[in-house]
Amino acid sequence: MSHVPTPDFAALVSRFAIAGNFVSAARHGSGHINDTYKVDCTHSGRPVSYILQRINHTIFKDPAALMDNVQRVTAHLRAKLQAAGVSDLNRHALTVIPTREGGPVLRKDGQWWRMYHFVGRARTFDKVETEAQVFEAARAFARFQGLLADLPAPRLHDTIPNFHNAVMRLATLRDAVKRDPHGRAAGAQPEIEFVERRAAMCARLLDRHQRGELPERITHNDTKLNNVMLDEQTNAAVCVIDLDTVMPGLALYDFGDMVRTATAAALEDERDLAKVFSRPEMFAALARGYLLEAKFLNAAEREELVFSGRLITLVIGIRFLTDHLLGDVYFKIHRPNHNLDRCRTQFNMVASLEAQADAMEQIVRACLT
What we know:
CATH superfamily of the largest domain: Aminoglycoside phosphotransferase (APH), C-terminal lobe
Number of strands: 11
Radius of gyration: 21 Å
Shape: globular
C-alpha cells in the first residue's frame, strides 16, 4: 500500500479514544500486508505509546468483519486472562483502542485504521535463533487456541475463505497447469509431478473433519515466530499478535505451519536445496511447547500432528507453484523464477519431513506420555 500518501498522524490519532497528546509516529515492524506505525504520546508528563495500523483492504476485503473478529477475540482473551489472575492485561493480550464514536475501526478517506496499546518490554524475531524461542512460541499459540475454545457464538467471520483448503489449492494448481497462460508448465514438470504423487494427501484432514473426527476450532492461521512477542529480559512468550487471520479452522493448520516455519534450516527462497531440511531439534522443542498447553486436543488431532507439517508445507509449495504458472500475480518476486524457487524449497522441506516422519512420531508420543 505504499502508493498511499503519508497520513496526517495527529489528525488520525485524535479520532481514537487515547489518553495523551500526540508527539510523533514512525513505521514499525516487518509486516508486509498492513502499514504499521508506532505512535508516541505524552500523558500527564509521561510517555505512552500505541500501535496504529492501516488495514490492507485489498487482501482483507471486509475490514469491518475482520475487526468484529478481533474485538470479540481480544475481549474474550482479556476476560479469560483476568479470571486466571494475570496482571498487566495490556501486555498479554492485544487491546483495541476504540474510536471517539466507540467503534473498533476508523474509516477515513477510503482507508481503514485501527489502534492497539503498544506492548512494551517485548520484541519479535523474524528468524528462529534458538530452541527456547520455538518452545515459547509453540506454547503461546497452543494457549491462544485453548483460551478461545469457549468463545461464545456466533461463529467468527472467515477473513480469507478457504485459506488452508488443500483440496481447493490442488484444484487451482491443476487449472493453472491446464491453462498454462505463460508457457511455464514445461519448466516446472518435476514440481507438478511431485504434487500429483502426493495428491491424496490434500483431502486427508478435510475428510476427517467431514466425518466429525477433527473439530472446527478458532485458529490463528499465521503461526510464524514473529507473531509472538517475547519478553526482552526473560524471553518468555508475552503476547500473540497479528490477529487478522484468526478465524474458524483446524488446530492442525496452526501446528503444521509452525512445523513448516520453525523447523526450516534455510530461508523460504533458498536456491541451494542441500541447505533445505527440517531440523529435528526444533521439531522436538515445538512439540514439547505445543503439547504442554494443548490439552484440548482430541485423539484424532494428536494422531495427525506430524502429518499436518507435511500437508501445510505441501500446500504452501502448491501456492507458490500456482502463482509461478499464473505469472506471479499474488506473491511479490524479486528475481526471475522466484516463486518457482520458493516452491522447490517447500517441496524439499516436504521430502525432509517425510524422511523424518517416524522419528517425529516418536517425539510426539514421548510428549504425550
